[in-house]
Amino acid sequence: MKKKQFVFLSLMSSFLLVSCGSKKETKEEVSTDSLPEWAIGEFIRPDITTPVIMPDSATEFYCPMRKEQVKWEESDTFNPAAITKDGKIVVLYRAEDNSAQGIGKRTSRIGYAESTDGINMVRRKEPVLFPADDQFKDIEAPGGCEDPRVAVTDDGLYVMFYTAWNRRTPRLAVATSRDLINWEKHGLAFGKAYNGRFENLDSKSASIVTEIKDGKIVIKKINGKYLMYWGERAVCAATSDDLINWEPVLNEQNDLKELARPRDGYFDSKLTECGPPALYTDKGIVLLYNGKNGSHDENGDVNYPGGSYCAGQFLFDLNDPYKVTGRLDKPFFYPEAPYEKSGQYVDGTVFIEGLAYLNGKLYLYYGCADSQVGVAICDYK
Hints:
4-stranded antiparallel β-sheet; disordered N terminus; globular; mainly beta; single chain; 2% helix; 11-stranded mixed β-sheet; 2 helices
């Protein structure tokens, strides 16, 4: 694929226009180029100075595992899912308590916030999904429920994919709801596939295929089945008949079929981790993903900090949803605001997970340095 240079344009101190593969070459000399026709964008941060969700040390709930009151979102709030419901955007975000120090060592729970404008949030005081003394505690405790993605069917069934983290093996799990508050857990997404072959597989980041229909994003079947892209070290796929039990797609050698992998010398040289629900368009299926950059003395892109997470896009063929037909060579979104470059993850992160559609606009929600939640907005009529 022919490489294109996409760069960053600073419009004003409180507004940023972010284009595909935006890159600041120098502080004085900045130019721009457009996204390819198939890609989604441009996304604008409405206010570079303020994230939309931040930690809160005042909220508490009774933890059924610890048998005590816990400040469940005291340390960090990040990596959100998003969906529209009743004319509002609902953001389901990962929140960490202060039970331990270091990434992956606290307990994560899923919080709920809603907004009429996509920016100003009203939050519930208690989490809506969390480890409990139930049949799923062995896969969720003590690490918790991490990094949700959410989508909805035509008839209003909300489906959440999240990482169940017992601090031994991270695995994709599924929960469903009719109101986004009361959730029924169903366990591991791949637990029953191929007689349990992938039950203990490290698995993360499920991006189910959706489409914009009647003014909202809804789940879409592909060739008679539900389809998700998933994975972080490579983009893989899985299919389902019921949204709960999923079968990973295999190759001719009966191993996981890898649709795309990291690339040496690019912003995604370490990881290609799937982002929010993929979007079916007339150009193909667009998958927004999180690319992790390698270090500069190894295989990373020297234009971005080593270890940083930047956002890219894949295009998959409509007739063959496992075939990549387009890929951005430069990220369309990368850590730029101060709160995206300082926090729990010091190398900088814009970790995209939530995509909501409201009044002709797409709202992209993302984790900022594993510490806060930001948003960027795109006109998409």
